[in-house]
Amino acid sequence: MHTTVGIIGGGPAGLLLARLLHLAGIDSVVLESRDRAYVEHRQRAGILEQGAVDVLRECGAGERMDREGLVHDGIELRFDRRSHRIDFPSLTGGRRVMVYAQTEVVKDLISLQLRQGGGPLLFEAYVRAVTGIDTDRPAVHFTHEGREQTLTCDYVVGCDGSHGVARTAIPDLTIYERSYPYSWLGIMADVPPSCDELIYAHSDRGFALHSMRSTTVSRIYLQVPNGTDLAEWPDERIWDELDARFAVEGDWKLERGPITAKSVLPMRSLVAEPMRHGRIFLAGDAAHIVPPTGAKGLNLAFSDVVVLARAFAHLNATGSAELLDAYSATCLRRVWRAEHFSYFMTTTMHVDPAQSPFDTRLQLSQLDRIATGTAAATELAENYTGLPVG
Ligand code: APR
Ligand code: PHB
User: Fold this and answer.
1) Model confidence pLDDT, tens digit, residues 340-358
2) DSSP of 294-314
């Protein structure tokens, strides 16, 4: 089996890349280790930047998103028991975000790929190794339906997430990483959101975030210590703790409802440089991880593959590898900006167990600057809604 671009991983990055390559007339094969149902139901984030919305529309995967997604013009910051709204369009020249779950993006991209003649998308195809990345015919070795197979390619792209195999094929990687002394406990609840826009709450009991999946389903997170056992968090305790963290002067009530899912998510920052070696490229979580506070993970993954698809299209049309050669440097500028923003949002909103009252006063001063000053609010709004993709 041979293809032009062998794509490892059928998460959002791999699926969008396959779609964009197909539209540029370049063939590809996607190898995904899990089955379709698993990939379609894996819970992840739910905020699409303007550029991600635009690219989904352009590639024909925007129809259901435009019908069911919720356009948000701002977020609310809560601290010191007060609410402050950050209005995106007025601060960014009209940019906004879309609340549309990653699970739905993935379902839309999969159905498009299978319906509209994209390249093969193989589920339960587990990639064991990549060889020959310094030659012009790299090979991807995988197991599918109990058989060991080899896909030879002109290029290989690792879209295989944070625990994938592609990163291990690159000999000269430098890994920059940081861990955080807290995790998130996330719940899905069958209750209409208690707010029209997301609420990011700083409190001395720890961070809390009210998000949503639809007008009837709430997605809510609260900061918990690393190593937290879910058994210590019966539903009642979660709601009581959320009440305390979201508490605000004036009228506001957190509506409770049946909790349908609960999980603990670790927080990590990581960048692998460079994002290319010879004939292999890394994109999305395979190359970088951000803590979820800035909602950047999916958006960064999309930006990478837009840049990469354009570079392959340029090679195809002109024979010039100039854009492919620039891929890593082009992406890393945006990646580090998003890493900084995610780190900033995380460390400004959470309570580090080792932090002093002085540190807390600094956080509150920083939040006050965002709530009351145009420059800091503009910076937050620009980072949150994202730069144009590419
Ligand atoms: N062989 C084949 N597939 C693999 C292998 C392997 N050895 N290892 C991992 N995969 C698959 C995973 O099963 C997964 O479906 O690669 C895919 C990677 O998808 P994601 O982890 O979703 O990563 P990515 O596509 O980069 O998406 C970006 O945005 O919201 C964030 O972290 C969140 O997933 C999200 C990310
Ligand atoms: C989510 O809806 O899952 C979500 C929203 C915003 C974030 C992180 C996660 O910053």
Assistant:
1) 999 999 999 999 999 999 9
2) G--HHHHHHHHHHHHHHHHHH
Tell how far the Cα of 382 is from the centroid of ligand 2, in angstroms.
17
pTM above 0.85, yes or no: yes
**Catalytic residue list contains 38:** no
- Measured CA to CA, the distance from residue 202 to residue 208 in angstroms comes to 7
C-beta contacts of 360-366 below 8 A and 24+ residues apart = 360/204, 363/79, 363/202, 364/79, 364/80, 364/202
Q: Which residues line ligand 2 (CB under 6 A)?
A: 45-47, 198, 209, 211, 219, 292-293, 295
CB 292 near ligand 1, within 6 Å: no
CA gap 161, 42 in Å, rounded: 13
Q: Provide the residue count of the chain.
A: 390
Residue 100 known to be catalytic: no
- Nearest atom of ligand 2 to the alpha carbon of 219: 2
* Residue found by looking up tokens 């145009």 in the block: 374
CA of 288 to the centre of ligand 1 (A): 12
125: tokens are 């195809």
Residue 135 burial (10 A CB sphere; 0-12, 13-18, 19+)? exposed
Exactly one of 100, 138, 292, 350 is catalytic; name it.
292
Task: Look up residue 192 and give its two tokens.
Answer: 């209409």
